[in-house]
Amino acid sequence: MLVPFVLYLGALPFANRVEPVVFGLPFLFVWLLAATLLTPVAVWLTYRGDQRSRKSREGEA
Predict the structure, then answer these.
(1) Which letter does DSSP use for residue 20 in this model?
(2) Over 4-15, what HEC string results?
């Protein structure tokens, strides 16, 4: 769950520039768009890992 935090806040000082332009958009806008699209993937991977650990703990009990 640290991935969204790092993408939005941790890397913001490094990505806060207009140049280069990616697909006609400022770099910061593309960076935030990518972070927004990757956040649900990170949450889903965390949920999936949590489900696996719960099943393994239930099997041990």
Answers:
(1) S
(2) HHHHHHHCHHHH
**Torsion angle in degrees (nearest 10) through CA of 8, 5, 35, 40:** -150
**Each residue of 7-31: pLDDT tens digit?**
888 888 888 887 889 899 988 888 8
CA dist 8 and 20 (Å) reads: 19
pTM: 0.68
What 8-state DSSP symbol labels residue 16?
-
Element (H, E) at 22: strand 21-22
User: Exposure of 42 by Cβ count < 10 A (0-12 exposed, 13-18 middle, 19+ buried)?
Assistant: middle
As a whole number of Å, the end-to-end CA separation of the chain is 27
